[in-house]
Amino acid sequence: MTAATDSPLFPQAPDSADAVLEGLDPEQREVATALHGPVCVLAGAGTGKTRAITHRIAYGVRAGILPPAGVLAVTFTQRAAGEMRGRLRQLGAHGVQARTFHSAALRQLQFFWPRAVGGELPPLVERKAPLVAEAATRCRLRLDRTELRDLTSEIEWAKVTQTVPEDYPAASAKAGRDAPRDPAETARVYALYEQLKRERSVIDFEDVLLLTAAILEDRADIAETVRNQYQHFVVDEYQDVSPLQQRLLELWVGERDNLCVVGDASQTIYSFTGATADHLLDFRTRHPDATVVKLVRDYRSTPQVVHLANALLGHARGRAAEHRLELVSQREAGPEPVYAEYADEPAEAEGTARRVRDLIASGVPAGEIAVLYRINAQSEIYEQALADAGVPCQLRGAERFFERPEVKEAFVVLRGAARAGGNDALLDDAVDLPSQVRAVLGTKGWTPQPPAGSGAVRDRWESLAALVRLAGDFATAHPGATLADLVTELDERARSQHAPTVDGVTLASLHAAKGLEWDAVFLVGLTDGMLPITYAKTDDQIEEERRLLYVGITRARRILTLSWALARSPGGRPGRQPSRFLKDLHPGAGTPSSPGAATGSVEGGGRRSARPLSGARPRLHRAPARCRVCGRTLTAPGEVKLMRCEDCPSELDEVLYERLHQWRAEQAALLGQPDYCVFTDKTLLAIAEAVPDDEAALARISGVRSRKLQQFGADVLALCAGEELPRKEEDI
């Protein structure tokens, strides 16, 4: 096992403090044993920073140097905090608090509010948007959904940077913000939003930090109580700290210096929310006697992936670039990164889905594959393409594992079976713990083989299958464990949000992928205007987009594909350019290419390989799509699908449209997939307008591709002809 490789799922806790240090590389060991004074860990992607800091805490606790209840480890997401708690528990460091900034502050605020202010803490508003919308209406501003979202984000930025409404216009200009509304209008909405909260006696997410900081500043006695409770602090992802979080951290620490911070300036990708790497880069200035350790041994990615990541940052500019870490891969060589160019976005999605399907067929687990994009709006076309290819997928950022209804139901039946013990007839033929779990979860929908397709039925099965795999791992690690022991373990994991993995290709934005890793990663939609995003104007904003691509590249352990499309929709003008960030990494990626897919892998010296890209089709020069009513050239995907302008007269056969809708719902139910995985609403509308009378006419409708033509063509043509579909045996 390499030094930074994750431990087995259920390792035995080390039997001594010295045993905690076993398996750490020299730099990680230096981090783990630096337990006094300020410590700054500069940790590159894949270098085992979480391993280093959790072993540091565990070593300090097991050696009797750090009191468990006196340690507060803070990070930025519930997932990261849950992972940290899980690792600390595995290392035998019980009682250590690992929380997000907000959850730690909220806990303190709830405890001290009656003493500092009196009464109960006002309720927390989980969604700002309705109040922001009301404030805007009172200011006589009409906002569409996008403007409301952007204005809400702007208010959040103002609060975490500790900017009051009257100072917002000047602060926004100084920071180079691309405000969604006139700064004076934004300031008015911001002020009225704060007034509405006061009138209704509610607080928001940022108020939790602001109020906690205010109480600690105003009440020396409360500040002293907190500092007596926590004597040692660890801050993960320190490059993402906002000015408000830094203020709160300084109040927690006080005049002491038992502070360990961990971060990487090259992974600063949240400055739009107020985060800044300055606190990390200035740490040694504030703490001249700090111990500084650099982690550069990359245990995650192959030399080929690491070389590309280093090369990307080699062209970076600015302060973060001056402190970049040159990673050194510790893995064996793997395949070269692949570059793929497609004619249009649907072709890119289909090509990506084919390559994903081929990888799964070759033995790569679906859960070890990710498709990453710049913005969430890009996900739909990849959901559809993967569904068409019969590949299960999951959207990152969806419901937490332990909050899923099927997981809660599984807990209930497992707990009931554990209480019943040998009196449960369901377990009569179960010879061991895994077979007991399979028998119990079989009553809730788990089967040895997964259901076909994707959708809600497959999602439910994947959740139950994750619990079955977890039971097998637990039984292997703990021979003789009972069902009651497993239930106890699951309860502990639920409390710490230490979820098992779910098998399915991950779809996620680059921001949501931070902190995660997969065997194979597809970075899609890499065009200028998307990455860097079109509203990135300043040098600092462009460099942050470069760092975002760096984060995406470093998510891949072994297989990496970077792709782009020259047009948005079939028949569109191929005027897009590959991302400027690729120009210096892949010769030819920054200039128009010749007909045929500009694909292949990059050799070590940057030469293009003649080996064609598996799964990528040659670019076809399609005729532009034109409206069948007025003849105008169409570019919007929805209009291309309908073959008419949105506002041109429709020739809809409403009876056929209703029959198609009913048929689609029945097909989706049979397949256990969402309706859109059969055909989207736009495709049904296009069919009901065109009323095709043969396969050729049906195939000309965008959205009816060869696989769907083969699967559903006969039914659709029969419906278009006014025929009744034959009833299947299971319907009789």
UniProtKB/TrEMBL annotation:
<dbReference type="InterPro" id="IPR013986">
    <property type="entry name" value="DExx_box_DNA_helicase_dom_sf"/>
</dbReference>
<dbReference type="InterPro" id="IPR014017">
    <property type="entry name" value="DNA_helicase_UvrD-like_C"/>
</dbReference>
<dbReference type="InterPro" id="IPR010997">
    <property type="entry name" value="HRDC-like_sf"/>
</dbReference>
<keyword id="KW-0413">Isomerase</keyword>
<keyword id="KW-0347">Helicase</keyword>
<dbReference type="Pfam" id="PF00580">
    <property type="entry name" value="UvrD-helicase"/>
</dbReference>
<dbReference type="InterPro" id="IPR002121">
    <property type="entry name" value="HRDC_dom"/>
</dbReference>
<dbReference type="GO" id="GO:0016787">
    <property type="term" value="F:hydrolase activity"/>
</dbReference>
<feature type="domain" description="HRDC">
    <location>
        <begin position="650"/>
        <end position="730"/>
    </location>
</feature>
<feature type="binding site">
    <location>
        <begin position="43"/>
        <end position="50"/>
    </location>
    <ligand>
        <name>ATP</name>
    </ligand>
</feature>
<dbReference type="GO" id="GO:0003677">
    <property type="term" value="F:DNA binding"/>
</dbReference>
<dbReference type="GO" id="GO:0000725">
    <property type="term" value="P:recombinational repair"/>
</dbReference>
<comment type="similarity">
    <text>Belongs to the helicase family. UvrD subfamily.</text>
</comment>
<dbReference type="InterPro" id="IPR014016">
    <property type="entry name" value="UvrD-like_ATP-bd"/>
</dbReference>
<keyword id="KW-0378">Hydrolase</keyword>
<dbReference type="InterPro" id="IPR044876">
    <property type="entry name" value="HRDC_dom_sf"/>
</dbReference>
<feature type="domain" description="UvrD-like helicase ATP-binding">
    <location>
        <begin position="22"/>
        <end position="302"/>
    </location>
</feature>
<dbReference type="Pfam" id="PF00570">
    <property type="entry name" value="HRDC"/>
</dbReference>
<dbReference type="GO" id="GO:0005524">
    <property type="term" value="F:ATP binding"/>
</dbReference>
<dbReference type="Pfam" id="PF13361">
    <property type="entry name" value="UvrD_C"/>
</dbReference>
<dbReference type="GO" id="GO:0043138">
    <property type="term" value="F:3'-5' DNA helicase activity"/>
</dbReference>
<feature type="region of interest" description="Disordered">
    <location>
        <begin position="569"/>
        <end position="619"/>
    </location>
</feature>
<dbReference type="InterPro" id="IPR000212">
    <property type="entry name" value="DNA_helicase_UvrD/REP"/>
</dbReference>
<feature type="domain" description="UvrD-like helicase C-terminal">
    <location>
        <begin position="303"/>
        <end position="558"/>
    </location>
</feature>
<keyword id="KW-0067">ATP-binding</keyword>
<dbReference type="GO" id="GO:0033202">
    <property type="term" value="C:DNA helicase complex"/>
</dbReference>
<protein>
    <recommendedName>
        <fullName>DNA 3'-5' helicase</fullName>
        <ecNumber>5.6.2.4</ecNumber>
    </recommendedName>
</protein>
<keyword id="KW-0547">Nucleotide-binding</keyword>
<dbReference type="InterPro" id="IPR027417">
    <property type="entry name" value="P-loop_NTPase"/>
</dbReference>
<dbReference type="GO" id="GO:0005829">
    <property type="term" value="C:cytosol"/>
</dbReference>
